[in-house]
Amino acid sequence: MRILLPTATLILLIGCSSAPEAAKQPVPPKVVEPVTARKAFYLVYGAARMWAPDVMPLRVESMPVEGFTPKDGKFAAWRMTFVSQTKGKMKVFTYSIVEASASLHEGVFSQGEAAWSGPKPIEQPFYVQAFKIDSDAAWKTAHDKSADYVKKNPSRPIFMQLEFTRLYPEAAWRVLWGDSVSMSDHSIYISASSGSYLGKS
After folding, report:
1. Is-contact 134 73, C-beta < 8 A?
2. DSSP state of 126
3. CA–CA separation, 176 vs 185, rounded Å?
4. d(Cα 160, Cα 194) in Å, to the nearest integer?
5. Contact at 8 Å (CB) between 198 and 177?
6. pLDDT tens digits, one per residue of 110-163
7. Phi and psi at residue 196, in whole multiples of 5°?
8. How far apart are CA 131 and CA 133, in angstroms?
9. Nearest alpha-carbon partner for 135 in 126, 143, 127
């Protein structure tokens, strides 16, 4: 018994110490999903406020990222341009869910600043409070209003842009079918404050 007990105890200790090793499971890779504009905007807004307390948004745009297909108004990356009246400058920020390229990094990233001469009729800054309707809601309204077009062009890429132009007396979402504004042949405008349909081009 004096010989067997220490041996049994040793076997038990070895078994206990190896159990956690056997229980370890491989960690699954993190799943990242495209995000709405408002989610990206408020992640960026804090950094913009640090740059200038009087900062105002000038433009919010979706960005294509290889390997991620936009879905229902959600994109893998967004570009946002802010302006400061006191500084007389504009500054561009991006938010991406992945490290995409040398100029598009994961998370919030500043792309530099440039001179800004102030509001113009063609485009002017808008108050943050006017940004109430998220990109997914704007996309749904635009999609519903474009049923015939979508049916004829099911694989046409979508680009989204939020800005305040002379076309309408408020900040508005422009949902475009095409790779860019210049290459689009169909656009729907949605109010950024109410979500109502404004028009098309």
Report:
1. yes
2. -
3. 8
4. 17
5. no
6. 988 999 998 888 899 999 999 999 999 999 999 999 999 999 998 899 999 999
7. -80, 155
8. 6
9. 143
